[in-house]
């Protein structure tokens, strides 16, 4: 890259969620990916400790997926999403509806997690309205929640930096407290013991706003981007009970947790709590082609199917909803997941994974470690007056040492492809141990 040539410089690309000037002063470029590894522009292998961005659950460069994409591109590149269909869209929706527990039988396709969230929130509002409860206009989210970057998701989200620059956001939104910070839960394995009663924040918000004004409550079953915050035992069940009591729809944002991340196909399976809608993306196509999905229970879908049959039931959709390339990719990805048992593989590795991450306890600046399924977090003590700097230093040092991790605040997050083996676990934690041990 020649910084002087405007046609081939680092300048034109405005990078998302990146310190652009810092990056461009010392760029980190991937040029290839196979299995568990990325290849850097300077020819080094970097072990993927975060499945790209929590998404490449089947690992990289999988021939079956590559072939499916090539075949689909040759067969039919695009088919209009509105008032037309194509067989793979129906096949994919049917397969997904069969996989997910309960009667989340209807699937609306989007192109990202953010779009899935917007879609679910809009369906929730419209659902109440068509049933004659149009006064249910409020949406409840949670502090530290991440539901993407569009206006609805940003509004129900609770990460301050993602919200504060962007005006008054969507009105009628309130937030429950997050469940992080109880000292009794430090270094918990899996679901922490304490804090289920924090779900009663929803009951308080019901009393404050009048529950008949609340349309939906949206939570990530595990708050991943906000710091890998795992719900206390019984917390999600309690949310479900409060929603039931007041006719509020419960939406699980499973953009990260769906497709095997917790060692079960969905977090719905893991926690045994049935939401009314589930949002997904990322692992649906193993990150290869953008695609998202919203799963809705039959009662929601059926409520829309009432008017004259020639009327459009939901004025919502995207040019690329159920794009044939994305559908072909997702079908091939589901085949790979199924053939290799990847959606439950995390359960068999979870014990080893937990032992490995908790072995870092006691290293300099490590103030908490959390894990669930094939997700883990190592929380570091922030440097005074320089929040996030310590974790970013670990990120850079890991990258130099051949490991890709993610940081959220001063927490190191791990979420590797589900094809991970013991030797990769050893490599991940050897590198982390070395890097953390050498911290100033
Ligand atoms: C829970 C959750 N919801 C929504 C999103 C947004 O997804 P996308 O970046 O595909 O829009 C993310 C992304 O990390 C997420 O973790």
What does this structure look like?
Helix 5 (113-130) crosses helix 11, helix 8 packs parallel to helix 9 and helix 14 (389-401) crosses helix 15. 48% of the residues are buried. The protein folds into two domains: 6-62 and 341-437, Aspartate Aminotransferase, domain 1 (Alpha-Beta Complex), CATH 3.90.1150; 67-340, Aspartate Aminotransferase, domain 2 (3-Layer(aba) Sandwich). A hairpin with a 4-residue loop joins strand 2 and strand 3 (45-48). It is α/β, with parallel strands linked by helices and 440 residues long. 37% of the residues lie in helices and 16% in strands. It has 15 helices and 15 strands. The structure holds pyridoxal-5'-phosphate. Pyridoxal-5'-phosphate binds next to helix 5. Residues 54, 112-114, 117, 146-148, 220, 224-225, 253, 255-256, 281 line the site of pyridoxal-5'-phosphate.
């Amino acid at each position: 890259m020649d910084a002087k040539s405007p046609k081939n410089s680092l300048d034109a690309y405005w990078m998302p969620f990146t310190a652009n000037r810092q990056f461009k002063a010392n760029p980190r470029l991937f040029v290839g990916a196979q299995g568990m590894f990325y290849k850097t522009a300077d020819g080094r292998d970097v072990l993927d400790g975060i499945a790209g961005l929590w998404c490449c659950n089947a690992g990289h460069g999988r021939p079956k997926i590559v072939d499916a994409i090539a075949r689909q591109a040759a067969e039919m590149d695009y088919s209009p999403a509105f008032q037309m269909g194509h067989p793979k869209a129906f096949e994919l929706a049917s397969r997904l509806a069969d996989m997910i527990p309960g009667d989340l039988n209807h699937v609306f396709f989007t192109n990202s997690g953010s779009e899935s969230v917007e879609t679910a929130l809009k369906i929730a509002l419209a659902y109440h309205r068509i049933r004659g409860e149009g006064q249910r206009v409020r949406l409840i989210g949670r502090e530290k929640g991440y539901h993407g970057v569009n206006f609805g998701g940003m509004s129900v989200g609770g990460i301050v930096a993602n919200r504060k620059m962007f005006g008054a956001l969507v009105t009628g939104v309130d937030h429950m407290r997050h469940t992080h910070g109880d000292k009794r839960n430090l270094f918990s394995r899996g679901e922490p013991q304490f804090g289920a009663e924090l779900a009663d924040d929803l009951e308080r918000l019901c009393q404050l706003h009048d529950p008949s004004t609340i349309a939906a409550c949206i939570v990530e079953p595990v708050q991943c981007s906000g710091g890998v915050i795992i719900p206390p035992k019984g917390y999600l069940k309690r949310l479900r009970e409060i929603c039931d009591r007041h006719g509020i729809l419960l939406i699980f944002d499973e953009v990260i947790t769906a497709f095997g991340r917790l060692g079960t196909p969905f977090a719905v399976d893991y926690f045994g709590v049935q939401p009314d809608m589930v949002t997904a993306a990322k692992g649906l196509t193993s990150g290869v082609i953008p695609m998202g999905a919203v799963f809705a229970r039959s009662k929601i879908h059926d409520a829309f199917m009432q008017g004259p049959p020639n009327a459009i039931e939901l004025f919502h959709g995207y040019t690329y909803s159920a794009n044939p390339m994305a559908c072909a990719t997702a079908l091939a990805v589901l085949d790979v997941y199924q053939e290799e048992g990847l959606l439950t593989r995390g359960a068999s590795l979870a014990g080893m994974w937990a032992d490995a991450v908790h072995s870092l306890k006691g290293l300099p600046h490590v103030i908490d470690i959390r894990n669930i399924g094939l997700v883990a977090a190592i929380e570091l003590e922030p440097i005074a007056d320089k929040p996030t700097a310590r974790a970013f230093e670990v990120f850079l040092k890991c990258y130099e040492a051949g490991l890709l991790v993610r940081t959220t605040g001063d927490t190191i997050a791990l979420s590797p492809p589900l094809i991970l083996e013991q030797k990769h676990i050893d490599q991940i934690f050897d590198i982390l141990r070395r890097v953390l041990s050498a911290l100033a």
